[in-house]
């Protein structure tokens, strides 16, 4: 080493000392002012309505005022005892007084930096910054900073996910925007009646503060209409459904208003996928292209008949099942989801449009047997109860009438099975009640697990497990033939396939797991 450079390194203070000299920053206090004004208005409104309509109960007013006061004091407490800082190696946050909590995330482990803003944040130009480093079900090594100024939030995101200083200004290409027809697709739900009931309950307590009894009002309308018992019940159910659809539509509009899915580009290469949405609470999620490993389409049975699907990206640090940020579209028609999913990978391949290989007929026979287990077992149980005079003997054949339905589902499950290898992408599909289609980069595969049950071994079939460090961490190609499994693995990982073929000529009967490093 150059003696001059060595001497300079010796004189430099340790990195930890440099970090200790960095100041701790506080949150923005303007959010406390907004909540204080909100509490004052709430209290004044409640007292005014109580003294003008003193026949109503006072406890709903006390509940509303108490909740508003708690939120106001919570924001003041958080501002007083929350500090954060960004060092060259990590992001740190300290909170609490009686119970102190310190959390930090290494900067090289940060997977996402997104921002959101409720209406009270937007009034004073504040943002909530969410820093994620690979959330899991039982452990979340991430935290949020509530609240920072809009400029500080943007500066923090640029600092934690830096771009090349010499890169040109980013350009945006819009992939999808909110379509009004999506409202109908997302409010069509059987549980709309529950939403309607909750809406009526909330309106009941709200009107109670103004000495208006919603039950008396509805009873008066029913008496005036003179509909009769059954017509009244039918009208009540219909009105509840309408109110439920109305409340679900309001919820969807508030969450997805001005929704946009865009790709930001810098130079020739894509940099990230970005979604923006929200009416009262705005949310922006950034997903770097270099962390995207695939895309996942999920179609429950009812949605499939309506040609609907939900679309997620498979990204390192975001569990597709547990993290809402993995969604890049709300529930949408399949053609819109296919268009968005196709643009996740900006190359010439179209893996979702490729024909899938059909799995062997043995997979169908296996599903027929599965479909017969439930009705046959139930019929046998009822037959035993009938022989012991617990239930009438004529009941035992009733479950067998379900066999046509279960066998139809078995046929659907078999027709759903498929897999393909399209350039650098693996495609798998399975599921009867909910069809799942997964596209994964071959470079994201960190191992293979080939498994055969005794029945699969008899039918010359196996299940190919695909571990990865992204999304749900594990995907499968179910009930493929042995030849298809070897060809599938050979196309994605020729080295591992050669290990199989150089041995017994076929993959091992039980399982094999061969780890390898993930491509950057």
UniProtKB/TrEMBL annotation:
Transmembrane residues, as ranges? 31-52, 58-77, 181-207, 227-248, 368-387, 393-414
Would you say which domain of life the source belongs to? Bacteria
List UniProt keywords, sorted A-Z. Membrane, Transmembrane, Transmembrane helix
Which parts of the sequence belong to the YdbS-like PH domain?
A: 79-159
Cited InterPro entries: UCP026631, YdbS-like_PH
Instruction: Note the Pfam families from the entry.
Output: bPH_2 (PF03703)
Return the protein name.
PH domain-containing protein
Write down the species: Amycolatopsis samaneae
């Amino acid at each position: 080493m150059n003696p001059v450079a060595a001497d300079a390194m010796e004189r430099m203070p340790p990195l930890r000392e440099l970090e200790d000299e960095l100041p701790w920053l506080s949150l923005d206090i303007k959010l406390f002012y907004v909540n204080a004004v909100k509490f004052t208005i709430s209290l004044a409104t409640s007292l005014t309505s109580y003294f003008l309509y003193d026949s109503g109960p006072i406890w709903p007013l006390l509940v509303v005022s108490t909740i508003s006061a708690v939120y106001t004091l919570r924001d003041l407490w958080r501002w007083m005892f929350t500090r954060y800082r960004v060092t060259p190696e990590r992001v740190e946050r300290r909170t609490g007084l009686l119970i102190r909590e310190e959390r930090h995330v290494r900067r090289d482990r940060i997977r996402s930096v997104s921002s959101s803003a409720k209406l009270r944040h937007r009034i004073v130009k504040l943002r909530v910054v969410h820093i994620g480093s690979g959330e899991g079900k039982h452990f979340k090594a991430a935290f949020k900073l509530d609240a920072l100024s809009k400029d500080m939030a943007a500066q923090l995101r640029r600092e934690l996910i830096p771009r090349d200083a010499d890169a040109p200004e980013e350009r945006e290409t819009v992939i999808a925007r909110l379509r009004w027809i999506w409202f109908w697709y997302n409010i069509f739900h059987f549980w709309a009646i529950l939403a309607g009931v909750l809406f009526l309950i909330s309106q009941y307590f709200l009107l109670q503060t103004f000495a208006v009894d919603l039950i008396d009002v509805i009873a008066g309308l029913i008496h005036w209409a003179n509909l009769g018992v059954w017509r009244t019940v039918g009208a009540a159910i219909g009105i509840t459904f309408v109110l439920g659809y109305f409340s679900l539509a309001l919820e969807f509009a508030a969450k997805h208003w001005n929704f946009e899915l865009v790709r930001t580009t810098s130079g020739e290469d894509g940099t990230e996928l970005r979604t923006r949405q929200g009416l009262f609470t705005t949310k922006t999620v950034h997903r770097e292209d270099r962390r995207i490993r695939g895309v996942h389409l999920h179609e429950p049975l009812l949605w499939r008949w309506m040609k609907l699907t939900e679309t997620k990206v498979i990204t390192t640090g975001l569990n597709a099942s547990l993290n809402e940020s993995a969604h890049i579209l709300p529930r949408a028609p399949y053609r819109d989801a296919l268009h968005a999913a196709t643009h996740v990978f900006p190359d010439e391949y179209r893996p979702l449009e490729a024909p899938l290989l059909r799995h062997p007929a043995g997979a169908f026979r296996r599903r027929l047997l599965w479909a017969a287990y439930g009705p046959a077992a139930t019929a046998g149980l009822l037959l035993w109860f009938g022989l012991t005079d617990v239930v009438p003997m004529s009941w035992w054949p009733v479950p067998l009438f379900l066999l046509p339905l279960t066998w139809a589902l078995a046929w659907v499950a078999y027709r759903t099975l498929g897999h393909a290898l399209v350039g650098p992408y693996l495609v798998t599909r399975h599921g009867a009640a909910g069809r799942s289609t997964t596209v994964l980069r071959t470079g994201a595969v960190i191992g293979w697990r080939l498994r055969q049950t005794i029945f699969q071994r008899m039918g010359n079939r196996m299940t190919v497990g695909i571990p990865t460090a992204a999304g749900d961490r594990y995907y499968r190609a179910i009930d493929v033939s042995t030849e298809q499994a070897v060809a599938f693995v050979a196309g994605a990982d020729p080295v591992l396939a050669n290990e199989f073929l150089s041995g017994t000529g076929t993959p091992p009967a039980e399982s094999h797991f061969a780890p390898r490093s993930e491509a950057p």
